[in-house]
Design brief:
Layout (H helix, E strand, L loop, with lengths): L1 H9 L12 H5 L7 E12 L7 E13 L3 E13 L5 E12 L5 E10 L2 E12 L4 E7 L3 E5 L6 H13 L4 E6 L10 E7 L17 H5 L3 E9 L12 E8 L4 E7 L3 E12 L8
Antiparallel strand pairs: 1-2, 1-14, 2-3, 3-4, 4-5, 5-6, 6-7, 7-8, 9-10, 10-11, 11-12, 12-13, 13-14
Length: 281
């Protein structure tokens, strides 16, 4: 279940009606809202042979910072899953990252435990040097990588996705690097953006505190397909597909990740907005 945990994390660094947004909204700068969100995770479906019969879990995601000082993301995702024979496994994923505005630099750290035993850890620092992106990994071992300069970091990608949605674009393609897969993976992504929900058109459950603040914002249904580099040019199926409702302030609800053999859902249960960091005068 380790890959499942890693993929659902990506929801929050991108980790989304018929009323079109006014032109003025297109020109307005995207402002991400610092917040803490709690999601209950369940198994949506599974096919025979998937090895997944049941799954429950909880994910806590926190975004802090501001555009001037950069954004910090922290996430903990714990699941209990079982196969058809009933044997269960507890998976505990903890991630932390800081990203400088404009995708200039990304620092990341990931630790994963399975049944309280350390299964994987990665840590690194990626920055743009004018010729591309240089990645310095310190865990699981010291290693240097070079990436193309047009690769997106997570916060940078989320902002670009909202900008594309505001501009009423139907698709947005980008290569994405978030430090996952031992810090060595770049995914090719293709995002399909649905028609916007006008403010209040599709209400967040009233049981979620601060739901009214989301209802006051426009949002979009988003579907993102993740491919191995170059695979999309060979008509290959995506490694996985991610769907969610993306609000104009960067909050996500209605998460769904489809791996083909099984799919999982994440429903928001708690939402707290945090104060943005003050920018120096």
């Amino acid at each position: 279940m380790s890959n499942t945990s890693k993929r659902i994390c990506a929801v929050f660094t991108l980790l989304a009606a018929a009323v079109l947004l006014p032109f003025a909204a297109v020109a307005q700068a995207v402002t991400l809202a610092p917040h803490r969100a709690v999601y209950d995770v369940t198994l949506d479906r599974s096919s025979p042979g998937s090895g997944v019969a049941e799954m429950t879990g909880r994910m806590v995601y926190e975004l802090t910072g501001s555009a001037c000082e950069g954004y910090t993301q922290n996430m903990r995702f714990v699941t209990r899953s079982s196969g058809s024979e009933g044997a269960s496994r507890i998976n505990d994923l903890r991630t932390s990252s800081w990203e400088e505005t404009g995708g200039k630099r990304l620092r990341f750290s990931t630790t994963q435990y399975q049944d309280d035993v350390l299964a994987e850890t990665s840590q690194g620092d990626a920055g743009r040097d004018g010729k591309g992106i240089k990645v310095e990994l310190s865990k699981p071992s010291e290693k240097a990588l070079k990436l193309a300069g047009d690769v997106y970091f997570p916060i940078q990608h989320s902002i670009a996705l909202i900008e594309a949605a505001r501009a009423r674009k139907l698709q947005f393609a980008a290569d994405l690097y978030d430090g996952s897969e031992r810090g060595e993976k770049v995914y090719t992504t293709n995002s399909v953006i649905g028609r916007p929900f006008a403010p209040g058109a599709a209400k967040v459950p009233a049981s979620v505190k601060n739901a009214e603040k989301l209802d006051a914002l426009p949002s979009w249904p988003i579907a993102i397909s993740y491919f191995e580099p170059g695979a999309e040019k060979k008509d290959a199926v995506p490694t996985y597909e991610l769907g969610f409702r993306f609000f104009d302030n960067g909050v996500s609800t209605g998460l769904r990740i489809d791996y083909g053999e099984f799919a999982i859902r994440g429903e928001i249960k708690e939402l707290v907005f945090l104060e943005a960091s003050k920018c120096a005068p």
